[in-house]
Every structure is written in C-alpha cells, then in structure tokens.
Amino acid sequence: MLDDFTFIAKIAMKSSVAVCFAALGEIYAERSGVLNLGVEGMMLMGALAGVAAGSATGNPVLATLGGMAVGGLLALLHAFFAITLRVNQTLSGLALTILGAGLSSFLGRAYIGKAALRMKVYVVPYLSDIPVIGDIFFKQTPLVYLAYILVPLGAWLLFRTRLGLKIRAVGEDAASADAVGVNVAAIRYGCTVFGGCMAGLGGAYLSLAYTPGWKENMTMGQGWIAIAMVIFATWYPLRAFLGALLFGGLTALQFFFQATGVELIPINVLRMFPYLATILVLIVVMRLDRTQGRGAAPAALGVPFSREG
C-alpha cells in the first residue's frame, strides 16, 4: 500500500512540472494585463528546441535554455502584436498556438524516433533518505528542483516587491500606473516574454526529462490545462502549483491503472481521465470562488493601452 502511494506521488510530481512552469509564466503575463492563449504552441516549440539543442550540444543546460529562448521569442512576437499594434489578444494567442503546432510538426520530423538527450536524476544527499518524502521529492531531475524554487520566488516577487506592485498595477489600471511613471509597455513586454520563456521551459522539461525525445503534439493539451490552472489559481502562483499537482496526481493514477493491469476501463478513457477530471474540479472551484466573491481577473486583462486613449 505504501509502495503504491509512493509510486503514484512520485509520478504525480513529475507529471505536474510542465504545467506548473507554464502556469507560473502565464500568471505573470495576465497579471500585467496581457492574455496569451499561445501557451500550447510555445510549449511545443520549446520541447522541439530542447531536443534540437540537446542533440547539437549534448549539454542539458544549453538544451533547456534553447527551449526557453524559443518560447520567449514566440512570446515576443505575441507581445509585438498585442502591445505595440494593439490587436485582439485572443486572436493573436490562438494564431501563436496554431503557428507553434504547425511549425513544430514540420520541423520535428527529423527528430521523430531518434535518441535524444536525457536529463539525469539527481539524488539530494540526506533529504533523499527521509522515508517516503525522500523518494517523492528528492530523487528527481534538476528541473523539478527548479520548480521548487521558482514557485515561491515567483509569489514573493509578485506580492512582496516593488516590481510586483508595478506589474499588478499595470494589470489593474494601466492608465493610472502610467500616470505615476510606470512604463506600461516595458512591464507588459517583460511579463509576456517571461511567460513565453516559462512555457518553453515547460516544453523542454517534457522532451528532456519527462519523456525524453520528440513526438508530434507531445504536450497533449497541457498548455490549455496551464491556462485553466491560472484561472483556478485566481492568478496566485502557490495555488497554481497545487493545481498542477492535482493534474499530475490524476495523470499518475492513469499510469497506475495501466501498470496494475486494470482492464475494466478502456485505455482511451484512461488517457482522457486527467484532463476531464481536472476540468471538472476547476469548474467546481470556480463556482465556489464566485459564491464567495473571489477569483476576479485583473481588471485590465486583454485591454490594450495607449496614451492617446
């Protein structure tokens, strides 16, 4: 029984990281007032860039940075259209997802079925010896440990620093923030690109650590789950981490059912289970938040800003 719990919890942690990274980045973008529905496309391109950079260099750090860079560049493209040209942010984000899916599918053909760089598991001395907890949390790849750092750091930066105050001010009332000297465009550009880098990091995690190698559409909708997690988290990083763990836990149960040979549930239903169950929980949580007067989006989310009005 304890071994089964440890197995499920360890897989849950591994399965939650990509969604966690992408959701954290999207929280920053949306807190600044920019809606980016291109997370799925950026994750796909980040995954492909990670594989390509890993094959070219053999260095996991450079491979990870490659995934982040490509995600950031795509987000910069979205920022240009959404912030500078002030086009419809929903359409721009959807176009980015279509671009990322199509481009990764085309460019990724050369990497299908080929051996890829595999990120090693690092065991944390002493902490890994703690019963149960050590196996779950401290026998992971470096990117999982990075998630342990980035989530609380992201929360602290957003709610305990002057920069975080500026980000939230721009997302709530860009005109007022501009009136007191905040550079609205710079804040929004920075947060949007950061969101893209985090989505690319999530994609690179999938192709370098979670399931090393390139497979077409390997994110399987995790970008959309990340966007849903932002709403579930009411734009708070720590709550997004819990939501990602929920998705990871449901994914782990799917693997557990397959590993234990449960044949009463068709395999296709098992694969759908984490997504359907996560969406159901999100709906319930959102309804509870609304009845309690919580969960309002940033007031200026999706609203272009111009000094000319």
TrEMBL record:
Membrane disposition: Multi-pass membrane protein
CDD domains assigned: TM_PBP1_transp_TpRbsC_like
Protein location: Cell membrane
Entry GO MF terms: transmembrane transporter activity
GO CC annotations, alphabetized: plasma membrane
InterPro entries associated with the record: ABC_transp_permease
Protein name: ABC transporter permease
Signal peptide range: none
Membrane-spanning residues: 7-28, 34-54, 61-85, 91-112, 143-159, 224-257, 269-288
Record key words, sorted: Cell membrane, Membrane, Transmembrane, Transmembrane helix
